[in-house]
Design brief:
Length: 384
């Protein structure tokens, strides 16, 4: 392009040397860009391969929650709660009193049974006295029978000699018969008394079946009375505290005690993630409530069945409308928190990482690719 200035023509085109010098940087940038574009897939592949090789030694899930023993406190008796000895979220020890039911009716029942027991003991002592009295009566009746027999023999001898009248003989026979009947009646009474004394006239009152029955009733009444005081079955924290004056129905939970020691974590891994998980492997635990702290633990056990098997309506996999769904299997993890770590509470959400110790290799990668492509069977040597 030419321009005119003061009658002179000026050439404004860029000199060839300058244009070449300006094109060289642009071509260098293009080369670098092309090289980067060609190297980018390889870089991504290398990074992916490194991540894949380094990530095979552990499995992680956030479907994990803190678990612990939990006791639903229910009464065996129905009644009004007259005293509650604990507060909401109070820590209690095993055997500590939680609340008490109204026990007036059970105390009255115990008093009545104890009185009836003493009455039965007195009856047993009276039967033993009757037994001794009846034995003396039998001895006296035997003496009367002996006398009546001798009188009858004497009257019979006199009647045979025509010395005594027949009336005297009949009177002696009647006396003998009455003596015999008296002995028989006394012996029947003696047997009845012995039967009432359980066949042992010398039995102790507390060994008699009737007294033992009353003692059993007394023990039952004491048991019912003890059931009016509800104690904690484990160490833990009280929740859902009842209000004094409320009515407790037998078998219906009125309070919950949640354990605060010996807690564990239930992690629900996918079944495809448990290939190399075994009991005893170490676990790293992150609690959502305490993001800046971590706990350690180990795999305690693996459930024998998936969680779906415990459902109220388990899946019917044999039905026609079947869709395959990856199942989850509960894994129990023990927790080993250090002194000073924040306290764990039942139900907290956690993220767990189980170290399986497995290492991936390029050989296993190639074996997997070959298997997916159907090359493993062709490349494998034939067995003789």
């Amino acid at each position: 392009m030419e321009r005119v200035r003061d009658g002179e023509h000026l050439d404004t085109r860029t000199p060839p040397i300058a244009a070449a010098s300006m094109r060289r940087p642009r071509m260098g940038v293009r080369v670098l860009a092309r090289a980067f574009m060609w190297a980018l897939p390889a870089l991504v592949l290398a990074i992916t391969l490194i991540i894949w090789l380094s990530s095979g030694g552990s499995v992680t899930t956030d479907n994990a929650y803190v678990k612990g023993d939990r006791a639903q406190i229910a009464t065996e008796l129905s009644g009004i709660i007259v005293e509650v000895s604990v507060k909401e979220n109070q820590r209690v020890s095993r055997g500590q009193l939680l609340f008490r039911l109204d026990d007036q009716s059970y105390r009255h029942a115990l008093t009545r049974i104890e009185a009836e027991t003493e009455t039965v003991r007195a009856e047993i002592r009276g039967l033993r006295a009757q037994w001794r009295t009846k034995r003396e009566e039998i001895k006296a009746a035997l003496s009367q029978q002996t006398f009546a027999q001798a009188e009858f023999d004497r009257q019979a001898d006199l009647a045979e000699k025509k010395v005594a009248s027949t009336a005297k003989l009949e009177e002696a026979r009647m006396g003998l018969e009455v003596a015999r009947q008296r002995i028989s009646a006394a012996q029947e009474d003696l047997q009845r008394i012995e039967a009432a004394l359980a066949g042992d006239p010398k039995i102790r009152a507390d060994d008699h079946p009737r007294v033992r029955q009353m003692m059993a009733m007394r023990e039952e009444a004491l048991l019912q009375l003890r059931r009016t005081t509800i104690e904690s079955p484990l160490d833990g924290v009280v929740t859902k505290r009842p209000v004094p004056g409320s009515y407790a129905s037998a078998g219906v939970p009125v309070m919950v005690v949640v354990a605060d020691t010996d807690l564990w974590i239930e992690a629900n891994f996918k079944e495809t993630e448990l290939t190399r998980v075994r009991a005893g492997q170490t676990v790293l635990i992150h609690v959502d409530t305490y993001p800046e702290s971590e706990c350690h633990g180990s795999v305690s056990s693996i459930s024998q069945s998936t969680g779906a098997e415990f459902a109220v309506l388990p899946p019917q996999n044999a039905s026609g409308n079947w869709v395959k769904v990856v199942q989850r299997i509960p894994v129990r993890l023990s927790v080993a928190c250090r002194d000073g770590d924040p306290p764990l509470r039942v139900g907290m959400s956690t993220t767990v990482e189980v170290s399986t110790g497995h290492t991936r290799s390029l050989a296993s990668l190639w074996a997997g690719v070959a298997k997916s492509l159907g090359l493993s069977s062709a490349s494998a040597p034939a067995k003789p």
